[in-house]
């Protein structure tokens, strides 16, 4: 009897925009592995039934994207400590007959920072010496990134959001190391910021730009934006104009995919220039 090829998925609603099949398809071909990775569009009302049918459908696991990450957190049988802390799951797999859930957005973001800035970026930017990492936005991505920065050992994190209540709620992750700031106070925080991270939709294609004067940032600071359409947001263009390192959002998408692929297909892939170029070309071809 032949063993069926591993079958993985990305589930969301809508899901047509997802580049995950392109990423995982690239790795399957690169490693010459049998297996499939497919898009599945599931309405929120049907998500619980979808999760319960995974084993019967022959899936070994998959990725979860908007709007299902919190539901996946509730439905996974076992969670990693990181997923517990973030309260959302983007990666599922079966192990010892049970459905496990993790959130790889946090390590994905950190891996991209390491690749873009070098592993010594906490020292280079000054965040290892008391400067703040300033996170703009208070949604799920901000929460994951804050957890990643806490895991990396940063001692001073500031989160700013238009809704002060949402920013304040994130300080509960570590009240000793995270403080909330009003949105209109962001400029006042820039002189003491070593790493500025935009997790909002501002600057995304079709959205308003993030209007922020970066002149007060220290000369050693770095700027990251999780938006990747466009790849060069107005915020990153402003950072480059000031001579500051600018980290785009595509790398987080690529690096967060690595742990899942390893779980489902038994090989740890690399985020290579070829893969990045392929995704950039696809983004360009779709406007």
TrEMBL record:
Q: Which GO terms describe its biological process?
A: amino acid biosynthetic process; aromatic amino acid family biosynthetic process; chorismate biosynthetic process; shikimate metabolic process
Q: Which residues form the Quinate/shikimate 5-dehydrogenase/glutamyl-tRNA reductase domain?
A: 129-201
Give the record's pathway.
Metabolic intermediate biosynthesis; chorismate biosynthesis; chorismate from D-erythrose 4-phosphate and phosphoenolpyruvate: step 4/7
- GO CC terms for this protein? cytosol
Binding sites annotated in the UniProt record for shikimate: 18-20, 65, 90, 105, 228, 256
| Gene Ontology MF annotations | NADP binding; shikimate 3-dehydrogenase (NADP+) activity
Q: Which reaction does it catalyse?
A: shikimate + NADP(+) = 3-dehydroshikimate + NADPH + H(+)
Q: Do you know which SUPFAM superfamilies this protein is assigned to?
A: Aminoacid dehydrogenase-like, N-terminal domain (SSF53223), NAD(P)-binding Rossmann-fold domains (SSF51735)
| Matching Pfam families | SDH_C, Shikimate_DH, Shikimate_dh_N
* EC number(s) stated in the UniProt entry for this protein: 1.1.1.25
- Please give the HAMAP family that the UniProt record associates with this protein: Shikimate_DH_AroE
Family (UniProt): Belongs to the shikimate dehydrogenase family.
Share what the entry says about its subunit structure, partners included: Homodimer.
Question: What's the protein here called?
Answer: Shikimate dehydrogenase (NADP(+))
Q: Species lineage, top-down?
A: Bacteria, Pseudomonadati, Pseudomonadota, Alphaproteobacteria, Hyphomicrobiales
